[in-house]
Each structure stands twice: as structure tokens, then as C-alpha cells.
Specification:
8-stranded mixed beta sheet, 3-stranded antiparallel beta sheet, alpha/beta, 8 helices, 38% helix, 13 strands, 25% strand
Length: 262
């Protein structure tokens, strides 16, 4: 006797296509689009979705989590300085104290828990999706993002004339790490001037990144290491507390922006 229900290939195909297109149509307009699904983007998405916001995460890779999987030097332990370790308690991630105030956890465990928490809160994901450009409205207000398939970027030039599509949002978060691709696109258009991230200085960088997390253009908030690139702050290195706390702060800033607009 068969174990599984009788289902044909066409049913599988229709389930994939129908489910994907239904989500794509629904999230053509969101409260918040977060570009970059590393730790700061995931944390911001989790916080906003828990507060009832409609959140779409746009990620160029097929996987989520960025460097949170592998820590530093391809060794899959992640470090967090107090008080950020409390978020590991909240996520249910075990950890050990390495030295006073510095905690170490398994990257795969921490990353998978954070991804699950964001998805459980209601965040939807468009992975293998490349940020291409900004949607800009009146008075320079950011009104969404232009996207395309990530594989398009790897195609020969003669067949890459595949027009992108646009998604609208009330607020966009740049959580793309040191690349800061959203802010850099705004810089290309003469809307902002970035400084570029500075040399590593862990003891200073984390406080500064959380402190500078905020709205840099109307409707555009920076989070995580993109903050470092935008304001010329020291890079953090393989410690993740500021990325998580920056994501939390970005969510609070977005709530203020949304309240101002309503």
C-alpha cells in the first residue's frame, strides 16, 4: 500500500507557481521592504512583523542569514557582547561566556532560530532577487524598490536586457551590509553622500552603529553594517550584537516613520 497521496507532476508545478505568484501579487505593495536578509534585516523584519506590519525581505542569495551562519574566518561560531546576548535567550539559542561580557554560540543554531523567528512572525521572502534601483516619489521620498532575478546578472550582456519590475513600500530598509547597495544607489542619483566604512575597531564600532541607525532619506532607513558604510564608522568584524540591536532600532525608527505618514 502506497505511503503518500496520489499527486501528479502537474499538481506539483501548479502548487509552486500558484503559491509563488499569489505571494508576489500580494507583496507588490508592502508596509516595509527590507533589502538584505542578514542578521540586522532578519531582526528588523521580525520586530516589524510582530507589530502587525506587512514585511517583505529581498535577498540576492538563495539562502538567508548572511555571515551569521559562519562567524569569522569560516569558523561557525558567532560572538555577541553584552547586552545583545539576551536576544539569544529570547530566540532560544544556547551560548557560553568566553570572557566577561563576551558570549559565543553556534552560528547555524543562532541563524536558523533567527530565520524561523522572522518567518513565524509573518515575514515573507523574495530570495534570488537582486536590488536594481529605487522608486523615488515627490520631494525625494523613497517609495519602493526595483528588482530583477539574481541570475540575470550572470547572463551574457547580449541577453541581459530583461526589464526589472518594481515593488512599492511605505518604508525601505537597507540591510545589505558593507555594500550598502540601496544607499549607494541613492548616492548615484545625487540624493546622499556616503563616507565608506573605516578600519576595524570592535570596541567602538558596535555602539556607533546602533547609535547611527536611522532614517537617512525620507522613507529610507539604514541598519547593520550599511550604517558603517553610510557614516564612515569602524567595521565591526565577526561580532553580531550590534547587527541584532541595530535591526531592533531600525524597526523602532520605521514605526515612527509609519506613524508620521498615517
Amino acid at each position: 500500500m502506497p505511503i503518500f497521496e496520489a499527486v501528479s507532476e502537474k499538481d506539483v508545478t501548479r502548487a509552486i507557481v500558484g503559491g509563488y505568484l499569489q505571494q508576489f501579487q500580494e507583496y507588490a505593495e508592502s508596509d516595509v521592504i527590507i533589502v538584505g536578509a542578514g542578521p540586522s534585516g532578519l531582526m528588523a523584519g521580525r520586530e516589524l512583523a510582530r507589530q502587525g506590519c506587512k514585511v517583505l525581505l529581498v535577498e540576492r542569495n538563495n539562502y538567508l542569514g548572511g555571515g551569521f551562519w559562519i562567524g569569522g574566518y569560516l569558523m561557525n561560531k558567532v560572538t555577541l557582547r553584552a547586552p545583545a546576548h539576551r536576544l539569544l535567550d529570547e530566540l532560544g539559542v544556547p551560548y557560553q561566556e568566553a570572557v566577561r561580557g563576551l558570549y559565543v554560540a553556534d552560528g547555524p543554531h543562532a541563524c536558523s532560530k533567527l530565520i524561523a523567528a522572522a518567518c513565524d512572525a509573518g515575514v515573507k521572502v523574495a530570495n534570488m532577487t537582486l536590488f536594481d534601483d529605487l522608486v523615488v516619489r515627490e520631494n525625494g521620498r523613497i517609495g519602493g524598490v526595483v528588482i530583477n532575478w539574481t541570475p540575470i546578472s550572470a547572463l551574457p550582456r547580449e541577453i541581459t536586457c530583461v526589464d526589472p519590475v518594481a515593488l512599492e513600500a511605505r518604508v525601505v530598509i537597507d540591510a545589505t551590509g558593507h555594500d550598502a547597495v540601496v544607499v549607494k544607489k541613492a548616492e548615484e542619483r545625487g540624493m546622499i553622500k556616503t563616507v565608506g566604512f573605516g578600519a576595524m575597531w570592535v570596541d567602538r564600532s558596535e555602539d556607533l552603529i546602533v547609535e547611527h541607525t536611522g532614517e537617512v532619506l525620507p522613507g529610507l532607513v539604514v541598519s547593520g553594517m550599511a550604517v558603517s558604510t553610510t557614516f564612515g564608522l569602524p567595521r565591526m568584524g565577526p561580532t553580531f550584537g550590534a547587527m541584532l540591536l541595530s535591526g531592533q532600532k531600525a524597526a523602532r525608527v520605521v514605526q515612527e516613520v509609519l506613524a508620521r505618514k498615517s
